[in-house]
Amino acid sequence: MSAAIQQRLKLQMFWPTFDPFLFCAFHNDRFPEGNGALGPAASLAGRDIGQDFAGINGWRMYHGSKVPGFPAHPHRGFETVTIVNEGFVDHADSMGAAGRYGEGDTQWMTAGKGVQHSEMFPLVYQDKANPIELFQVWLNLPAKNKMVEPHFGMLWNEQTPIAALQDDAGNEARVKVVAGPYLAPSGETITPLSPPPDSWAGDPDNEVAIWIIDLEESARWTLPAASPGLSRTLYFFEGQTGQLDATEVAVQEAYVLDSSAALEINNTGSKARFLLLQGRPIGEPVQQHGPFVMNTREELQQAFFDYQCTQFGGWPWQDSDQTHGTEKGRFAKFASGNIETPESV
């Protein structure tokens, strides 16, 4: 095994993560045509509605009853980074922010001292299938930032930098830089959009990186070395086979890496895709219960008490599974009331 690989793990829906990351879910649903009300034009018989994770016919309703997704629920003490490679998500939250994003967009939300939000998967097309593929990554906050004001941010696909590279044989590799700068072999630094102001990713010394790596058949690409002591995990989520240095690897695996070592990735199958999560560990105690992540049990108890008392600002929307209609395009409405679209940036 390559000396750079410290651990090799199998992937399921919820992927293994390491400090400063708390959680990573990969949603890959082949939804059918929509029914005109943003739900599936298919029978829901046999599904555990409200808790449908079975994957019947290749898709799930999750906690949705009419539209798939996750109706209003609270968070405190960390951040969600939702990267939608395909399909759409309708967001609404207790700050009054909302959005429809997808097709490569990333929504980055700092829960901080507390927020409610909903994440629904609108099936906008009635004349064709509505596949969705996304990652949701939970990035922890250090104790000093766990009670900051919540923040809603949008990183549009059109503004998210991609490094397009070729190996010696002319095969292409593409690195989508969601967080953390990438130093290309040419010496050019690919700089991502800024994370939220209180994020662990906001301090360059923490070397947080979230990259999506696409390799053509037979392409080679080298993951550059970073500082020692970082958490660094590479997820092989699409493709067939490959090599990491001289180690044979296969799709649906994760590799915990030595962050101080460069690693050559050789795609020996069809198009291959990887997700990289990297960051300096926060190194603080973690106490988690469901949607709350704090440092102590007492802080967790306070989080539940605060939510019961305040509902983290309440829910200003008509529905707990709020969606944004059949005709709406991609947009972000911020807590300030300002509205942004990819075209307006």
Automatic annotation (TrEMBL):
Q: What is its EC number?
A: 1.13.11.24
| Top EC class for this record | oxidoreductase
Q: Which cofactors?
A: Fe cation
Task: Supply the CDD domains for this chain.
Answer: cupin_pirin_N
Q: How is the cofactor bound?
A: Binds 1 Fe cation per subunit.
Pfam families, per the entry = Pirin, Pirin_C
Listed GO molecular functions? metal ion binding; quercetin 2,3-dioxygenase activity
Cite the Pirin C-terminal domain residue spans from the record. 213-313
Q: Which keywords does this chain's UniProt record carry? A: Dioxygenase, Iron, Metal-binding, Oxidoreductase
Instruction: Give binding positions for Fe cation.
Output: H73, H75, H117, E119
InterPro entries, from UniProt? Pirin, Pirin_C_dom, Pirin_N_dom, RmlC-like_jellyroll, RmlC_Cupin_sf
The family annotation for this protein states: Belongs to the pirin family.
Q: What is this protein called?
A: Quercetin 2,3-dioxygenase
Look up and give the organism this protein is from. Marinomonas aquimarina
Recite the lineage of the species. Answer: Bacteria, Pseudomonadati, Pseudomonadota, Gammaproteobacteria, Oceanospirillales
